[in-house]
Amino acid sequence: MNEPVIIPLWIFVLLLGGTAFTLADRVLLPMVRWFLQRTINRVIDDISRRLSLEIRPFQLTKRQVLIDRLVNDPGVISAIQREAQQRGVSRERLQKEVVVYAKEIVPAFNAYLYFRIGYWVAKKIARLLYRVHIGLIDSARLEKIDPNSTVVFIMNHRSNMDYIIVSFLVAERTALSYAVGEWARIWPLQTLIRAMGAFFVRRRSNNTLYRLVLERYIHMATKEGVCQAVFPEGGLSRNGQMGRPKFGIIDYMVRGYQPDTDRDIVFVPVGINYDRTIEDRSLMRALDPEAGRRSRWFVVKTTGLFIVKSIKLMILSRWRKFGYACVNFGSYASLHDYCNEEGIDFSRMDRRERFKAVETLSNHLMAAIAAVIPVLPIPLVAAVFQAKPQSSLTAFEVEERVNRLITDIQARGAPVFISTRSRVQNIVTALNMLKMRRLIVESNGLYTADPEMRNILDYYANSIAHWPPESDPTD
Question: For residues 399-437, b (16+ Cβ closer than 10 Å) or e, as one string?
Answer without folding.
Answer: bebbbbbbebbeeeebbbbbeeeebeebbebbbebbeeb
